[in-house]
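Whiteboard transcription, Tuesday session. T.W. wrote the structure tokens on the left side:
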């Protein structure tokens, strides 16, 4: 909240030949009570941008403390799980695309997911990009959270609170001058939480005229919502 002090600590946990895992821990300190608590933990995967066409091979990271050794070991397991997720979801997508395999919701009061669809278009300007001219990943995430929050609010009629972001992956870069189109829709509700899927497509001027988008990002954002008393609100069931 306004008036509190946020500390962001990052370190490389492990290097995998051409990629690395960076651990990010965010804590907040109350200036009045001096109390400090962790508000967010995340793990980001980076690759080094090569000067030429070849890939940049990274040197191994040498853990020092006991915590470093633990994170170093867990990094390889997180990588294994992450790569496994991709295979599992690809299989599910192939199976769900079979003819006649459709999910139907028979609940009487189910809300159509069409009601939750939100679309937004943003123009990438120089302040939105780094020194390479690529759009900041954090800027794209902020835009994604905005449309996802609006999508979730159409179900809870309140102000949704972001709980987690899953399978956030950059499939390609975007640049200054690109138009970014964000599409968000509620995928499903789980009593006190809701999952919103967001897809991001980029267009340069020529692609915009020809209607040839580049899929650059997708993610799944989970929200909860509370009332004035701080009690969790229940989300209605949805009909795809």
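and on the right, the sequence the group agreed on:
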């Amino acid at each position: 909240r306004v008036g509190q002090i946020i500390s962001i600590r990052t370190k490389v946990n492990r290097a995998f030949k051409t990629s690395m895992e960076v651990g990010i821990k965010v804590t907040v300190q109350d200036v009045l009570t001096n109390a400090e608590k962790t508000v967010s933990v995340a793990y980001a995967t980076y690759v080094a941008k090569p000067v030429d066409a070849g890939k940049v091979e990274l040197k191994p990271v040498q853990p020092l403390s006991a915590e470093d050794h633990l994170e170093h070991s867990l990094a390889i397991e997180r990588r294994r799980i992450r790569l496994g997720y991709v295979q599992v979801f690809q299989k599910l997508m192939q199976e769900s695309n079979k003819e006649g395999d459709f999910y139907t919701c028979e609940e009487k009061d189910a809300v159509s997911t069409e009601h939750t669809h939100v679309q937004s278009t943003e123009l990438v300007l120089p302040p939105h990009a780094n020194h390479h001219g690529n759009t900041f990943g954090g800027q794209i995430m902020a835009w994604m959270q905005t449309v996802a929050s609006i999508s979730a609010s159409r179900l809870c009629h309140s102000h949704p609170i972001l709980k987690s972001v899953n399978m956030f992956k950059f499939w390609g870069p975007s640049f200054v001058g690109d138009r970014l189109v964000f599409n968000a829709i509620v995928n499903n509700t789980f009593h006190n939480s809701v999952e919103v899927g967001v897809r991001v497509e980029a267009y340069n001027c020529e692609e915009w005229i020809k209607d040839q988008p580049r899929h650059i990002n997708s993610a799944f954002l989970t929200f909860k919502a509370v009332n004035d008393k701080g009690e969790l609100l229940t989300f209605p069931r949805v009909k795809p």
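Someone added at the bottom: The chain has a mean pLDDT of 91.
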